[in-house]
Amino acid sequence: xxxxxxxxxxxxxxxxxxxxxxxxxxxxxxxxxxxxxxxxxxxxxxxxxxxxxxxxxxxxxxxxxxxxxxxxxxxxxxxxxxxxxxxxxxxxxxxxxxxxxxxxxxxx
Amino acid sequence: xxxxxxxxxxxxxxxxxxxxxxxxxxxxxxxxxxxxxxxxxxxxxxxxxxxxxxxxxxxxxxxxxxxxxxxxxxxxxxxxxxxxxxxxxxxxxxxxxxxxxxxxxxxxxxxxxxxxxx
Lengths: 108, 118
Hints:
- The complex is a heterodimer.
- Helix content of chain A is 0%, strand content 53%.
- Chain A has strands spanning 4-7, 10-13, 19-29, 34-39, 46-50, 54-55, 63-76, 86-91, 103-107.
- By secondary structure, chain A is mainly beta.
- In chain A, strands 2-9-8-4-5-6 form a 6-stranded mixed sheet, with no helix packed on it. Chain A has a 3-stranded antiparallel sheet with strand order 1-3-7, with no helix packed on it.
- By secondary structure, chain B is an all-beta fold.
- In chain B, a hairpin with a 6-residue loop joins strand 5 and strand 6 (58-60).
- At the A-B interface, strand 4 and strand 5 of A face strand 5 and strand 10 of B.
């Protein structure tokens, strides 16, 4: 089973700042099978990034993904108030389709 | 518009059973793999189970194997999760998701809350 470890657990930033979230895999993950999701309180998650670096439909270009092998990054270039949420990475190449434990992005 | 609508959640005693349903609309249901993902209160996302587009292949997380059964009725555009021998630790919001090998979980339902408690 691939274990995904996200860091930091909580990230405190202000609107307008840049956010960098990390996702590290216990073994190499195909870049074509790494995704990022955003979840706001009381809401279902939403797909942000798929295949490590492709933005899902309707996702603003301030969100970007990068990485390969065991290290992946989600970057939000300039934080908007609506970006403060919990973010999860996930590998979906094969079963079990594990998620990271999440990074909470909170307003400083 | 793509929609996934779960139903069937509720309160059940430990050892009890429950069946969740997810009705899909707005896309060709029979051509997509479908998965269930759950989230315990205040916790992260956990993959539960997946089923192929024609229902011939299923896969489960070790924690639910033998107790939860995923199935689908393509004629009715409906995904199911039959839950038996439920445990307190199965308490969670269960999300129905549309899966694609290209972009993962590109659609989610609103979730169904299952509470296992005496």
